[in-house]
Amino acid sequence: MNLRDAVLAILGGLSLTLSMAPFNLWPLALVAAAILFHLLNNKKPLDAFYRALLFSFSLFISGASWVFVSIHEFGYMPIPLACLLTFIFCLSLALINAASWFTFSFFCNIHTSHSSSRSQSILMFAATGVFTEWLRTWLFSGFPWLFAGYSQTEWVLGSWAPLIGVYGISFIIYASGAGVYVLGRSLQPNSKTDRSLTIKAVLSATLLCWLLAPLIDTIEWSQKTGAARSVSLIQANISQHEKWQPEQLASSLQLYADMSRGEWESNELVIWPEAAIANDYTSSKSFINRMGEMASTSNSALLTGVPYRFYDTKDKRWRVHNSVAGTGHAEGLYHKRQLVPFGEFIPFENIVGRLMKVFNLPMTSMQPGPTHQAAIKIHDWQARPLICYEIVYPALTAKTAQLSDVLITVSNDAWFGASFGPVQHLQMAQMRARENGRYVLRSTGSGISAVINTKGVITARTAQFERETLRGSFYLYQGLTPWGHSGYWLIPTLNIGIIIALYSYGYSRKM
Hints:
Elements: H1 3-18, H2 27-40, H3 45-63, H4 66-74, H5 79-109, H6 117-138, H7 161-186, H8 197-216, E1 223-235, H9 240-243, H10 249-260, E2 269-271, H11 285-297, E3 301-312, E4 317-328, E5 330-335, H12 349-358, E6 376-378, E7 381-383, E8 386-387, H13 394-401, E9 407-411, H14 421-436, E10 440-444, E11 450-452, E12 458-461, E13 468-478, H15 482-510
Parallel strand pairs: 1-2, 2-3, 8-9, 9-10
Antiparallel strand pairs: 1-13, 3-4, 4-5, 5-6, 6-7, 10-11, 11-12
Helix pairs in contact: 1-2, 1-3, 2-7, 3-5, 4-5, 5-6, 6-7, 6-8, 6-15, 7-8, 7-14, 7-15, 13-15
Protein backbone atom coordinates (compact mmCIF):
# COMPACT_ATOMS: atom_id res chain seq x y z
CA MET A 1 0.00 0.00 0.00
CA ASN A 2 1.47 3.31 -1.10
CA LEU A 3 1.36 6.55 0.87
CA ARG A 4 -1.46 7.99 -1.25
CA ASP A 5 -3.77 5.05 -0.54
CA ALA A 6 -2.86 5.12 3.15
CA VAL A 7 -3.82 8.79 3.40
CA LEU A 8 -7.05 8.12 1.49
CA ALA A 9 -7.93 5.26 3.83
CA ILE A 10 -7.40 7.43 6.90
CA LEU A 11 -9.43 10.29 5.39
CA GLY A 12 -12.18 7.88 4.38
CA GLY A 13 -12.61 6.49 7.89
CA LEU A 14 -12.50 9.98 9.36
CA SER A 15 -15.12 11.16 6.82
CA LEU A 16 -17.54 8.46 7.95
CA THR A 17 -17.15 9.59 11.57
CA LEU A 18 -17.76 13.21 10.57
CA SER A 19 -20.95 12.24 8.72
CA MET A 20 -22.58 11.23 12.02
CA ALA A 21 -23.28 12.95 15.33
CA PRO A 22 -22.11 15.28 16.66
CA PHE A 23 -20.86 16.69 13.34
CA ASN A 24 -23.72 15.48 11.06
CA LEU A 25 -21.90 16.28 7.80
CA TRP A 26 -23.97 13.60 6.08
CA PRO A 27 -22.59 13.99 2.48
CA LEU A 28 -19.24 12.78 3.83
CA ALA A 29 -20.76 9.31 4.20
CA LEU A 30 -20.97 9.15 0.40
CA VAL A 31 -17.39 10.41 0.16
CA ALA A 32 -16.25 7.71 2.59
CA ALA A 33 -18.07 4.98 0.63
CA ALA A 34 -16.59 6.22 -2.66
CA ILE A 35 -13.07 6.24 -1.19
CA LEU A 36 -13.47 2.74 0.23
CA PHE A 37 -14.76 1.40 -3.12
CA HIS A 38 -11.79 2.97 -4.89
CA LEU A 39 -9.37 1.42 -2.39
CA LEU A 40 -10.80 -2.11 -2.55
CA ASN A 41 -12.21 -2.67 -6.03
CA ASN A 42 -10.07 -5.00 -8.18
CA LYS A 43 -7.31 -5.16 -5.58
CA LYS A 44 -5.51 -8.30 -4.50
CA PRO A 45 -7.14 -9.76 -1.37
CA LEU A 46 -4.22 -8.99 0.95
CA ASP A 47 -3.90 -5.44 -0.39
CA ALA A 48 -7.64 -4.94 0.12
CA PHE A 49 -7.37 -6.27 3.67
CA TYR A 50 -4.71 -3.74 4.67
CA ARG A 51 -6.59 -0.85 3.06
CA ALA A 52 -9.84 -1.84 4.77
CA LEU A 53 -8.03 -2.30 8.07
CA LEU A 54 -6.58 1.22 7.96
CA PHE A 55 -9.93 2.70 6.85
CA SER A 56 -11.78 0.91 9.67
CA PHE A 57 -9.20 1.69 12.33
CA SER A 58 -9.42 5.38 11.37
CA LEU A 59 -13.21 5.15 11.73
CA PHE A 60 -13.19 3.56 15.18
CA ILE A 61 -10.27 5.48 16.69
CA SER A 62 -11.95 8.75 15.69
CA GLY A 63 -15.58 7.77 16.32
CA ALA A 64 -15.24 5.58 19.41
CA SER A 65 -12.61 7.58 21.26
CA TRP A 66 -15.01 7.81 24.21
CA VAL A 67 -13.91 4.27 25.14
CA PHE A 68 -10.73 5.81 26.55
CA VAL A 69 -12.78 8.13 28.77
CA SER A 70 -14.79 5.22 30.14
CA ILE A 71 -11.72 3.09 30.79
CA HIS A 72 -9.51 5.79 32.28
CA GLU A 73 -11.83 8.16 34.14
CA PHE A 74 -14.38 5.65 35.41
CA GLY A 75 -12.51 2.36 35.14
CA TYR A 76 -9.65 3.96 37.08
CA MET A 77 -7.02 2.54 34.76
CA PRO A 78 -3.74 4.43 34.27
CA ILE A 79 -3.39 6.40 31.03
CA PRO A 80 -0.86 4.06 29.35
CA LEU A 81 -3.02 1.00 29.99
CA ALA A 82 -6.20 2.85 28.99
CA CYS A 83 -4.52 3.91 25.73
CA LEU A 84 -3.43 0.34 25.08
CA LEU A 85 -6.89 -1.10 25.74
CA THR A 86 -8.52 1.55 23.54
CA PHE A 87 -6.05 0.74 20.76
CA ILE A 88 -6.75 -3.00 21.07
CA PHE A 89 -10.51 -2.39 21.15
CA CYS A 90 -10.48 -0.26 17.97
CA LEU A 91 -8.06 -2.59 16.22
CA SER A 92 -10.26 -5.61 17.02
CA LEU A 93 -13.29 -3.91 15.50
CA ALA A 94 -11.23 -2.90 12.47
CA LEU A 95 -10.08 -6.50 12.00
CA ILE A 96 -13.71 -7.67 11.90
CA ASN A 97 -14.46 -5.15 9.16
CA ALA A 98 -11.27 -5.90 7.24
CA ALA A 99 -11.97 -9.63 7.25
CA SER A 100 -15.32 -9.00 5.54
CA TRP A 101 -13.82 -6.67 2.94
CA PHE A 102 -11.10 -9.27 2.34
CA THR A 103 -13.77 -11.59 0.90
CA PHE A 104 -15.12 -8.74 -1.27
CA SER A 105 -11.78 -8.58 -3.07
CA PHE A 106 -12.12 -12.26 -4.05
CA PHE A 107 -15.47 -11.45 -5.62
CA CYS A 108 -13.97 -8.60 -7.64
CA ASN A 109 -11.17 -10.83 -8.93
CA ILE A 110 -13.53 -13.49 -10.34
CA HIS A 111 -15.54 -10.84 -12.21
CA THR A 112 -12.80 -8.86 -13.92
CA SER A 113 -13.51 -10.40 -17.32
CA HIS A 114 -17.28 -9.92 -17.32
CA SER A 115 -19.10 -7.00 -18.92
CA SER A 116 -21.50 -6.80 -15.96
CA SER A 117 -18.72 -6.87 -13.35
CA ARG A 118 -18.96 -3.22 -12.36
CA SER A 119 -22.67 -3.31 -11.50
CA GLN A 120 -22.26 -6.55 -9.57
CA SER A 121 -19.27 -5.11 -7.72
CA ILE A 122 -21.40 -2.17 -6.60
CA LEU A 123 -24.08 -4.53 -5.26
CA MET A 124 -21.51 -6.76 -3.58
CA PHE A 125 -19.78 -3.71 -2.10
CA ALA A 126 -23.04 -2.45 -0.58
CA ALA A 127 -24.00 -5.91 0.68
CA THR A 128 -20.57 -6.43 2.25
CA GLY A 129 -20.77 -3.06 3.97
CA VAL A 130 -24.09 -4.01 5.55
CA PHE A 131 -22.75 -7.46 6.44
CA THR A 132 -19.87 -5.92 8.40
CA GLU A 133 -22.34 -3.78 10.37
CA TRP A 134 -24.67 -6.70 11.05
CA LEU A 135 -21.71 -8.87 12.10
CA ARG A 136 -20.59 -6.27 14.64
CA THR A 137 -24.11 -6.24 16.09
CA TRP A 138 -23.81 -9.69 17.61
CA LEU A 139 -20.18 -10.92 17.40
CA PHE A 140 -18.58 -11.05 20.89
CA SER A 141 -21.84 -9.65 22.34
CA GLY A 142 -21.87 -6.85 19.78
CA PHE A 143 -20.78 -3.25 19.22
CA PRO A 144 -23.44 -1.84 16.86
CA TRP A 145 -21.90 1.61 16.63
CA LEU A 146 -20.92 3.92 13.72
CA PHE A 147 -23.15 2.45 11.00
CA ALA A 148 -23.16 4.44 7.75
CA GLY A 149 -26.96 4.62 7.87
CA TYR A 150 -26.89 6.77 11.01
CA SER A 151 -25.61 9.65 8.89
CA GLN A 152 -29.15 9.88 7.48
CA THR A 153 -31.05 9.88 10.79
CA GLU A 154 -32.31 13.44 10.26
CA TRP A 155 -31.75 13.65 6.52
CA VAL A 156 -33.21 12.42 3.25
CA LEU A 157 -32.75 8.66 3.44
CA GLY A 158 -33.98 8.55 7.02
CA SER A 159 -37.48 8.25 5.56
CA TRP A 160 -36.63 4.66 4.58
CA ALA A 161 -36.09 3.65 8.23
CA PRO A 162 -39.62 2.25 8.85
CA LEU A 163 -39.21 0.02 5.77
CA ILE A 164 -35.60 -1.15 5.75
CA GLY A 165 -34.06 0.14 8.96
CA VAL A 166 -30.54 1.43 9.46
CA TYR A 167 -29.08 -1.59 7.63
CA GLY A 168 -31.06 -0.85 4.47
CA ILE A 169 -30.09 2.81 4.62
CA SER A 170 -26.44 1.79 4.95
CA PHE A 171 -26.89 -0.35 1.82
CA ILE A 172 -28.10 2.69 -0.13
CA ILE A 173 -25.19 4.79 1.20
CA TYR A 174 -22.59 2.23 0.18
CA ALA A 175 -24.20 1.69 -3.24
CA SER A 176 -24.52 5.44 -3.80
CA GLY A 177 -20.90 6.11 -2.90
CA ALA A 178 -19.68 3.36 -5.22
CA GLY A 179 -22.07 4.57 -7.91
CA VAL A 180 -20.76 8.14 -7.68
CA TYR A 181 -17.22 6.81 -8.04
CA VAL A 182 -18.10 4.68 -11.08
CA LEU A 183 -20.06 7.53 -12.67
CA GLY A 184 -17.17 9.92 -12.16
CA ARG A 185 -14.76 7.47 -13.79
CA SER A 186 -17.07 6.92 -16.75
CA LEU A 187 -17.16 10.64 -17.49
CA GLN A 188 -13.40 10.84 -17.86
CA PRO A 189 -12.01 11.01 -21.44
CA ASN A 190 -10.97 7.64 -22.89
CA SER A 191 -12.49 5.86 -19.91
CA LYS A 192 -12.90 2.08 -20.18
CA THR A 193 -15.39 1.99 -17.34
CA ASP A 194 -18.39 -0.24 -17.94
CA ARG A 195 -21.32 1.71 -19.52
CA SER A 196 -23.62 -1.26 -20.11
CA LEU A 197 -27.36 -1.33 -19.54
CA THR A 198 -26.79 -3.24 -16.28
CA ILE A 199 -24.67 -0.54 -14.68
CA LYS A 200 -27.15 2.11 -15.81
CA ALA A 201 -29.97 0.15 -14.18
CA VAL A 202 -28.06 -0.15 -10.88
CA LEU A 203 -27.24 3.57 -10.84
CA SER A 204 -30.83 4.47 -11.72
CA ALA A 205 -32.21 2.26 -8.93
CA THR A 206 -29.85 3.89 -6.44
CA LEU A 207 -30.91 7.37 -7.57
CA LEU A 208 -34.56 6.34 -7.30
CA CYS A 209 -34.07 5.51 -3.60
CA TRP A 210 -33.10 9.13 -3.01
CA LEU A 211 -35.93 10.55 -5.10
CA LEU A 212 -38.61 8.42 -3.44
CA ALA A 213 -37.53 9.29 0.11
CA PRO A 214 -39.66 12.49 0.47
CA LEU A 215 -42.74 10.59 -0.73
CA ILE A 216 -42.15 7.73 1.72
CA ASP A 217 -41.82 10.27 4.52
CA THR A 218 -45.49 11.19 4.12
CA ILE A 219 -46.67 7.66 5.00
CA GLU A 220 -47.77 6.96 8.58
CA TRP A 221 -46.78 3.37 9.28
CA SER A 222 -48.17 3.21 12.82
CA GLN A 223 -51.32 4.75 14.30
CA LYS A 224 -51.57 7.35 17.03
CA THR A 225 -53.97 6.43 19.83
CA GLY A 226 -55.61 8.94 22.14
CA ALA A 227 -54.62 12.40 23.26
CA ALA A 228 -51.16 13.65 24.19
CA ARG A 229 -49.64 12.24 27.41
CA SER A 230 -47.33 14.10 29.78
CA VAL A 231 -43.97 12.94 31.08
CA SER A 232 -41.28 14.30 33.37
CA LEU A 233 -37.68 13.09 32.99
CA ILE A 234 -35.53 13.67 36.07
CA GLN A 235 -31.86 14.41 35.33
CA ALA A 236 -30.13 14.76 38.71
CA ASN A 237 -26.57 15.00 37.31
CA ILE A 238 -24.95 13.22 40.24
CA SER A 239 -21.21 12.70 39.77
CA GLN A 240 -20.32 9.20 38.65
CA HIS A 241 -17.45 9.20 41.15
CA GLU A 242 -19.87 9.87 44.03
CA LYS A 243 -22.90 7.94 42.84
CA TRP A 244 -21.98 4.55 44.33
CA GLN A 245 -20.46 5.76 47.58
CA PRO A 246 -22.65 4.43 50.44
CA GLU A 247 -22.51 7.71 52.32
CA GLN A 248 -24.02 9.51 49.32
CA LEU A 249 -27.06 7.22 48.98
CA ALA A 250 -29.40 9.10 51.32
CA SER A 251 -28.68 12.49 49.76
CA SER A 252 -29.08 11.06 46.22
CA LEU A 253 -32.47 9.55 47.03
CA GLN A 254 -33.57 12.78 48.67
CA LEU A 255 -32.52 14.74 45.59
CA TYR A 256 -34.62 12.56 43.27
CA ALA A 257 -37.56 12.80 45.65
CA ASP A 258 -37.26 16.59 45.84
CA MET A 259 -36.96 17.00 42.06
CA SER A 260 -40.04 14.81 41.56
CA ARG A 261 -42.22 16.38 44.23
CA GLY A 262 -43.79 18.98 41.95
CA GLU A 263 -44.07 16.61 38.98
CA TRP A 264 -46.62 14.05 40.20
CA GLU A 265 -49.59 16.41 39.93
CA SER A 266 -48.87 17.64 36.38
CA ASN A 267 -47.47 14.49 34.71
CA GLU A 268 -48.91 11.02 34.43
CA LEU A 269 -45.44 9.51 34.17
CA VAL A 270 -42.14 10.37 35.88
CA ILE A 271 -38.97 8.57 34.77
CA TRP A 272 -35.71 8.33 36.72
CA PRO A 273 -32.59 7.18 34.83
CA GLU A 274 -30.57 3.98 34.90
CA ALA A 275 -29.51 3.01 38.45
CA ALA A 276 -30.98 6.23 39.85
CA ILE A 277 -31.40 4.25 43.07
CA ALA A 278 -27.81 3.18 43.70
CA ASN A 279 -28.83 0.41 46.05
CA ASP A 280 -30.36 -3.05 45.83
CA TYR A 281 -34.06 -3.20 44.93
CA THR A 282 -35.02 -5.26 47.99
CA SER A 283 -33.16 -2.96 50.37
CA SER A 284 -34.79 0.08 48.72
CA LYS A 285 -38.31 -1.34 48.64
CA SER A 286 -39.63 0.92 51.40
CA PHE A 287 -38.35 4.04 49.61
CA ILE A 288 -39.78 2.83 46.27
CA ASN A 289 -43.16 2.14 47.90
CA ARG A 290 -43.16 5.62 49.45
CA MET A 291 -42.53 7.18 46.02
CA GLY A 292 -45.26 4.94 44.61
CA GLU A 293 -47.76 6.19 47.18
CA MET A 294 -46.97 9.80 46.29
CA ALA A 295 -47.37 9.02 42.59
CA SER A 296 -50.64 7.14 43.09
CA THR A 297 -52.13 9.99 45.10
CA SER A 298 -51.71 12.24 42.04
CA ASN A 299 -52.74 9.50 39.57
CA SER A 300 -49.15 9.30 38.30
CA ALA A 301 -46.57 6.56 37.77
CA LEU A 302 -42.84 6.21 38.35
CA LEU A 303 -40.25 4.19 36.47
CA THR A 304 -36.78 4.05 37.98
CA GLY A 305 -33.52 2.27 37.32
CA VAL A 306 -32.35 0.12 40.24
CA PRO A 307 -29.96 -2.84 40.71
CA TYR A 308 -31.72 -6.12 41.54
CA ARG A 309 -29.73 -8.58 43.68
CA PHE A 310 -30.70 -12.26 43.69
CA TYR A 311 -29.25 -15.64 44.58
CA ASP A 312 -28.31 -17.78 41.59
CA THR A 313 -29.08 -21.34 42.66
CA LYS A 314 -27.19 -22.73 39.67
CA ASP A 315 -23.86 -21.01 40.41
CA LYS A 316 -24.47 -20.91 44.17
CA ARG A 317 -23.69 -17.21 44.48
CA TRP A 318 -25.33 -13.80 44.59
CA ARG A 319 -25.86 -12.04 41.25
CA VAL A 320 -27.09 -8.62 40.16
CA HIS A 321 -29.46 -7.53 37.39
CA ASN A 322 -29.48 -4.01 35.95
CA SER A 323 -33.21 -3.34 36.23
CA VAL A 324 -36.12 -0.92 35.87
CA ALA A 325 -38.98 -1.00 38.38
CA GLY A 326 -42.47 0.47 38.08
CA THR A 327 -44.45 1.85 40.99
CA GLY A 328 -47.51 4.02 41.58
CA HIS A 329 -49.74 3.54 38.54
CA ALA A 330 -47.00 1.38 37.01
CA GLU A 331 -46.49 -2.27 37.78
CA GLY A 332 -43.68 -4.57 36.75
CA LEU A 333 -39.95 -5.19 36.78
CA TYR A 334 -37.61 -5.44 33.82
CA HIS A 335 -34.05 -6.86 33.84
CA LYS A 336 -31.52 -5.74 31.22
CA ARG A 337 -30.72 -8.43 28.67
CA GLN A 338 -27.90 -6.97 26.56
CA LEU A 339 -24.98 -6.23 28.87
CA VAL A 340 -21.93 -4.07 28.10
CA PRO A 341 -18.65 -6.03 27.83
CA PHE A 342 -16.19 -5.08 30.62
CA GLY A 343 -18.65 -2.47 31.89
CA GLU A 344 -21.25 -4.95 33.18
CA PHE A 345 -19.69 -8.34 32.61
CA ILE A 346 -16.30 -9.84 31.84
CA PRO A 347 -16.16 -11.75 28.51
CA PHE A 348 -14.41 -15.12 28.85
CA GLU A 349 -14.37 -14.51 32.59
CA ASN A 350 -12.28 -17.58 33.41
CA ILE A 351 -9.37 -16.19 31.36
CA VAL A 352 -9.81 -12.41 31.23
CA GLY A 353 -11.03 -12.21 34.82
CA ARG A 354 -7.87 -13.82 36.15
CA LEU A 355 -5.72 -11.43 34.11
CA MET A 356 -7.60 -8.42 35.50
CA LYS A 357 -7.08 -9.74 39.03
CA VAL A 358 -3.33 -9.99 38.39
CA PHE A 359 -3.24 -6.31 37.42
CA ASN A 360 -5.62 -5.43 40.29
CA LEU A 361 -8.16 -3.94 37.86
CA PRO A 362 -11.80 -3.27 38.83
CA MET A 363 -14.21 -6.02 37.84
CA THR A 364 -17.96 -6.26 37.59
CA SER A 365 -20.17 -9.14 36.63
CA MET A 366 -23.89 -8.65 36.18
CA GLN A 367 -26.37 -11.25 35.00
CA PRO A 368 -28.47 -10.72 31.85
CA GLY A 369 -32.21 -10.89 32.31
CA PRO A 370 -34.41 -13.57 30.71
CA THR A 371 -34.97 -13.34 26.97
CA HIS A 372 -38.74 -13.22 27.31
CA GLN A 373 -40.02 -10.63 29.78
CA ALA A 374 -43.41 -9.02 30.13
CA ALA A 375 -43.93 -5.33 29.56
CA ILE A 376 -44.44 -2.97 32.48
CA LYS A 377 -48.08 -1.90 32.83
CA ILE A 378 -48.43 1.90 33.03
CA HIS A 379 -51.98 3.21 33.53
CA ASP A 380 -53.95 1.66 30.65
CA TRP A 381 -50.97 1.08 28.35
CA GLN A 382 -47.64 -0.72 28.46
CA ALA A 383 -43.95 -0.50 27.63
CA ARG A 384 -40.97 -2.80 27.99
CA PRO A 385 -38.00 -0.54 28.82
CA LEU A 386 -34.58 -0.57 27.23
CA ILE A 387 -31.60 0.10 29.48
CA CYS A 388 -28.70 2.16 28.14
CA TYR A 389 -26.81 0.10 25.54
CA GLU A 390 -29.91 -1.88 24.53
CA ILE A 391 -31.37 0.95 22.44
CA VAL A 392 -28.47 0.68 19.96
CA TYR A 393 -29.48 -2.87 18.93
CA PRO A 394 -31.92 -2.61 15.97
CA ALA A 395 -33.45 -6.09 16.32
CA LEU A 396 -33.77 -5.96 20.11
CA THR A 397 -35.54 -2.60 19.91
CA ALA A 398 -37.88 -3.86 17.16
CA LYS A 399 -38.90 -6.81 19.33
CA THR A 400 -39.41 -4.45 22.26
CA ALA A 401 -41.62 -2.16 20.14
CA GLN A 402 -43.95 -5.11 19.51
CA LEU A 403 -44.80 -5.02 23.24
CA SER A 404 -44.70 -1.25 23.74
CA ASP A 405 -46.98 1.69 22.98
CA VAL A 406 -43.98 3.96 23.47
CA LEU A 407 -40.26 3.20 23.68
CA ILE A 408 -38.74 4.07 27.05
CA THR A 409 -34.99 4.00 27.55
CA VAL A 410 -33.03 4.88 30.67
CA SER A 411 -29.30 5.42 30.60
CA ASN A 412 -26.26 6.49 32.58
CA ASP A 413 -24.24 8.30 29.92
CA ALA A 414 -21.90 9.72 32.53
CA TRP A 415 -19.63 6.80 31.58
CA PHE A 416 -18.97 8.56 28.27
CA GLY A 417 -17.73 11.74 29.95
CA ALA A 418 -17.43 14.85 27.77
CA SER A 419 -17.02 12.87 24.55
CA PHE A 420 -18.93 12.05 21.36
CA GLY A 421 -20.60 9.09 23.09
CA PRO A 422 -23.77 10.71 24.50
CA VAL A 423 -24.59 12.50 21.24
CA GLN A 424 -23.99 9.34 19.18
CA HIS A 425 -26.14 7.40 21.64
CA LEU A 426 -28.93 9.95 21.24
CA GLN A 427 -28.73 9.76 17.45
CA MET A 428 -29.19 6.00 17.55
CA ALA A 429 -32.27 6.45 19.74
CA GLN A 430 -33.62 8.82 17.08
CA MET A 431 -33.14 6.13 14.43
CA ARG A 432 -34.96 3.57 16.61
CA ALA A 433 -37.93 5.97 16.81
CA ARG A 434 -38.06 6.22 13.00
CA GLU A 435 -37.63 2.50 12.46
CA ASN A 436 -40.43 1.49 14.80
CA GLY A 437 -42.94 4.33 14.53
CA ARG A 438 -42.82 4.96 18.27
CA TYR A 439 -42.06 7.95 20.47
CA VAL A 440 -38.87 7.49 22.48
CA LEU A 441 -38.66 8.78 26.06
CA ARG A 442 -35.00 8.91 27.02
CA SER A 443 -34.06 9.54 30.64
CA THR A 444 -30.36 9.87 31.52
CA GLY A 445 -28.51 10.71 34.71
CA SER A 446 -26.30 13.48 33.30
CA GLY A 447 -27.71 14.10 29.80
CA ILE A 448 -28.81 14.04 27.14
CA SER A 449 -32.42 13.32 28.18
CA ALA A 450 -34.93 13.75 25.37
CA VAL A 451 -38.39 13.20 23.96
CA ILE A 452 -38.21 11.99 20.35
CA ASN A 453 -41.20 11.70 17.99
CA THR A 454 -41.89 9.01 15.39
CA LYS A 455 -39.97 10.93 12.71
CA GLY A 456 -36.84 10.94 14.85
CA VAL A 457 -37.24 14.63 15.67
CA ILE A 458 -36.24 15.72 19.18
CA THR A 459 -39.20 17.66 20.59
CA ALA A 460 -37.59 18.35 23.98
CA ARG A 461 -34.11 17.80 25.39
CA THR A 462 -31.75 18.69 28.21
CA ALA A 463 -28.18 19.90 28.17
CA GLN A 464 -25.34 17.68 29.34
CA PHE A 465 -24.03 17.85 32.90
CA GLU A 466 -26.93 20.01 34.07
CA ARG A 467 -29.36 19.27 36.89
CA GLU A 468 -32.65 19.59 35.09
CA THR A 469 -36.22 18.33 34.95
CA LEU A 470 -37.42 17.81 31.38
CA ARG A 471 -41.17 18.06 30.87
CA GLY A 472 -42.60 16.92 27.58
CA SER A 473 -45.57 15.40 25.83
CA PHE A 474 -45.83 12.25 23.77
CA TYR A 475 -48.38 10.05 22.02
CA LEU A 476 -48.99 6.34 22.25
CA TYR A 477 -48.82 4.41 18.98
CA GLN A 478 -50.09 1.02 17.88
CA GLY A 479 -49.40 -1.03 14.79
CA LEU A 480 -46.00 -2.07 13.51
CA THR A 481 -43.87 -0.62 10.76
CA PRO A 482 -42.65 -3.08 8.08
CA TRP A 483 -39.26 -2.97 9.83
CA GLY A 484 -40.78 -3.64 13.25
CA HIS A 485 -42.93 -6.47 11.92
CA SER A 486 -40.24 -8.51 10.18
CA GLY A 487 -37.66 -6.20 8.58
CA TYR A 488 -35.22 -6.47 11.49
CA TRP A 489 -34.48 -10.08 10.48
CA LEU A 490 -35.60 -10.02 6.83
CA ILE A 491 -33.26 -7.24 5.67
CA PRO A 492 -30.04 -8.88 7.03
CA THR A 493 -31.22 -12.22 5.62
CA LEU A 494 -31.86 -10.74 2.17
CA ASN A 495 -28.49 -9.01 2.32
CA ILE A 496 -26.72 -12.32 2.98
CA GLY A 497 -28.80 -13.79 0.14
CA ILE A 498 -27.44 -11.11 -2.22
CA ILE A 499 -23.87 -12.00 -1.25
CA ILE A 500 -24.44 -15.73 -1.80
CA ALA A 501 -26.25 -15.17 -5.11
CA LEU A 502 -23.54 -12.90 -6.50
CA TYR A 503 -20.76 -15.25 -5.45
CA SER A 504 -22.59 -18.23 -6.96
CA TYR A 505 -23.19 -16.37 -10.22
CA GLY A 506 -19.57 -15.28 -10.39
CA TYR A 507 -18.19 -18.78 -9.95
CA SER A 508 -20.65 -20.24 -12.47
CA ARG A 509 -19.56 -17.72 -15.08
CA LYS A 510 -15.89 -18.35 -14.37
CA MET A 511 -16.19 -22.13 -14.85
